[in-house]
Amino acid sequence: MGLFDRHAGLLDAYRDVRTTGADPFQIRMERVLSPTEAIINGKKTLLVGTNNYFGLTFDPSCMEAAIEAIRAEGTGTTGSRIANGSYSEHVALEQEIAEFYGKKHCMVFTTGYQANLGVISTLVGPDDFLLIDADSHASIYDACKQTQAEVVRFKHNDPSSLDARLRRLGDKPGNRLVVLEGIYSMLGDSAPLKEFVAVCKKYNAYVLIDEAHSLGALGEHGRGLCESTGVLDDCHFVVGTFSKTLGAIGGYCVSDDPDFDILRVTTRSYMFTASLPPSIVASVRQALRIVKAHPELRTKLWDNVAALYDGLAAKGFKLGPEHGPVVGVHLPDRMMAIGFWRAMLDAGIYVNVAVPPATPNGVSLLRCSVSAAHTKEQLDHMIEVMAGIGRQLGVLSGPTLRVVSSR
Amino acid sequence: MSDIQNQNGELLLRTAQNMIVENDDVADTLVLRRPLARAEVMAEICRQLEPFQADDGRAITGATVISKDLSIDSLAVMDMVMDLEDQFDVSIPMNVVAEIQTVDELADTILALSARR
To answer: How confident is the model at residue A398 (pLDDT cuts 50, 70, 90)?
Structure first.
C-alpha cells in the first residue's frame, strides 16, 4: 500500500478534470498586467476570479509604500514576532486596524488562514463549545481539528438551527463560541448577523465573525457585515484578511477583551511562523488609508456587482441567493462546470471553478469575483461570452423562436 | 410514574409509565416525551441514507459501513447528521461523528445522547 493510494478517488477525479486540456487548479499567470488583466496561455485574459475587490494590487501609492519599506527595512523579517521582535510598523498596523474597528486590541497574522486557525482553536479549550456554520471556510474547519473544544455544526445561515444547538447544551459548564462569516466565499451570500447575534446573546455565547470577503465591501466605513448590520459592538472577535480588498497578504483579529494579548503567547500559528515582511505591512497600511478615504470604491464595486449579477440573471443563469462581490453561477455537474470554465478561459475570461467537496451541498459552480476596477465594458463582454457558451453547452436554452401560426 | 399537580395539590395529569415529563421553556408548556425507540431511529437513518444506496442493491442494515458501503461523501454524512440531530433533538459533536462507522453506531450514539438529556 503506497502513501498515495488513499487518494485514489481524488486522483481519478483530478484526471477527469485534466483531460479537458487545462488544469483549473494549476493555472499559470504568465504575466499579470493589472488588477483585471493577465496573460494566460499567451493571451490577454480578463480576471474575474481573484478577489481583488477594490483593485488595489496596482495602486501606485501602495506600490510606492512597499518599495520604500524594502529600501528602508529590507525584504523580510526572517522569523516570528516572539523570536525576532516586532517592527514598529507591525505595531502601527495593529493600532490602525484596532482604530478602524473602534476595538482596543488587534493581532496581525501572516495569512488570513492562520488568523482563523490560530484564534479559533485557541479561544476555546477542553470543556468549551465551538459552534460553526456548516458552510464555513476550510480555515475554520481546520481550527476545529486543532481545538480541544467540542465542535457542533449548525445549518448554513440558519439562526434557529444555532438556537436549537445552544439550547441543547443546556446548563453544561463551558464557554460557547459561535463562528460566522460576513460573506460566504462560494455563493457570495451574507449571514443574517443581527438574528444570529440575538441568539448568541440569549445563550451568552461569544461571537467571532470572519469578514474576509466583506472588508471594504460592506458597512458605511467598509468594516464589514458587523458594521452594515449595526452589531459591531456585539461581535467579540472580528477576523479578516489583507489578501483581498487590501491587495496583499496577511490576517488580523480585533477584540475589546482586556486579556486578548495573551493570544500572542498561546496561539501557535502566530508564534511559530515568520511575521509579515515590511513591504507587505507598508502596502496594507496604505491600502487601509485608501479604504477609509475612498468610499466611492465601495459604490463602484456594488454597481459592478449589480451589473454582473443582474446581467447573468437576465440571461437565465442560476446564481447565488443575493448580490455580493462573489457571484456563484450554478452548473448542473462537475464536468459541465469544468468544461464551461475551460471554454471561458479559451474566450479570454478567467473565473474560478468550484466543485465538490469544496462546495456546499455538492454543487458545481463557476465562482466570479467582482472588482471596483472592472469596467462596464469588461463586464458586459463577460455576460455576452457566458451567455454564448451557456447556449452552446445547453445550460441556457437557445434564443426563443417565435412561432407565428398561419391561418 | 410521575404526576403533575397544581398549587393546591390537585392531580392535573397522571403521566403514563415510561413517559418522561420535561419542561420545554420555549413554549412554556409541559410536554410528554417517550424514550426514543431504537427502531424509530434506525428507520429514520435508513430513510435518510436510501438515496446513497450502492448500485448492487444491498439493503441498508445496522452493519452497513456508511462511508464504505454507500456512495456518500463525508460532507453529505455531516449534513445528514444535522437533520437527524434536529429530528431527535440531540447534538452530535463533530469529533464523535468522525468516529462513527456503521449505521448501528450512529443509532446508538443518538439513543445514548437522547437518554442523557
So the answer is: low
Interfacial A residues in 163-192 facing B (CB < 8 Å): 164-165, 167-170
CB contact under 8 A, B26 and A167: yes
Q: Which residues of A106-123 are buried (b: 16+ CB within 10 A; e: fewer)?
A: bbbbbbbbbbbbbbbbbb
Q: Which CATH number applies to A60-293?
A: 3.40.640.10
A334 touches chain B (CB under 8 A): no
Topology of domain A20-49+295-392, CATH:
Aspartate Aminotransferase, domain 1 (3.90.1150)
Tell me the nearest-neighbour CA distance from B58 into chain A, angstroms. 22
SS percent in chain B: helix, strand, coil, step 5: 45, 15, 40
Q: Are the Cβ atoms of A357 and B94 closer than 8 angstroms? A: no
Q: Is residue A347 exposed (0-12), middle (13-18) or buried (19+ Cβ within 10 Å)?
A: middle
Helix (H, G, I), strand (E, B) or coil at A346: helix
Q: Provide the grid cell at A227.
A: 458594521
Return all residues near B88 (Cβ < 8 A) that are at least 6 apart.
Answer: B36, B41, B44, B110, B114
What is the Cα–Cα distance from B70 to B63, expressed in whole angstroms?
12
Beta pairing class for A37-40 and A29-34: antiparallel
In chain A, what is the greatest distance between 2 CA atoms, to the nearest angstrom? Answer: 89
Query: pTM value?
Result: 0.90
The answer to which of A3-12, A163-172, A284-293, A335-344 has the lowest mean pLDDT is: A3-12
| Subunit contact B73:A357, Cβ cutoff 8 A | yes
The secondary structure of A227-292 as a DSSP string is: HHTT-GGG-SEEEEESSSTTSS--EEEEE--TTGGGGGGT-HHHHTSPPPPHHHHHHHHHHHHHHH
pLDDT tens profile A135-162: 999 999 999 999 999 999 999 999 999 9
State chain A's mean pLDDT as an integer: 95
Q: Do B73 and A362 touch (CB under 8 A)?
A: yes
What are the residue boundaries of the structural domains of chain A, listed by start?
20-49+295-392, 60-293
Q: Are A158 and A191 in contact (CB under 8 A)?
A: no
Of residues A151, A167, A169, nearest to B95 (C-beta): A151
The per-residue pLDDT for range B28-83, each reduced to its tens digit, is: 555 566 778 999 999 999 999 998 888 777 889 999 999 889 988 888 899 999 99
Looking at residue B31, its pLDDT comes to 56
Looking at the complex, report in whole angstroms how far the Cα of residue B91 sits from the nearest Cα belonging to chain A: 6
What ipTM does this complex have? 0.84
- Per the DSSP assignment, residues forming a β-bridge with A152 are A131
Strands B11-14 and B3-5: antiparallel
pLDDT band at B1 (very low <50, low <70, confident <90, very high): very low
For chain B, domains (ranges, CATH) are 3-33 (no CATH), 38-116 (1.10.1200.10)
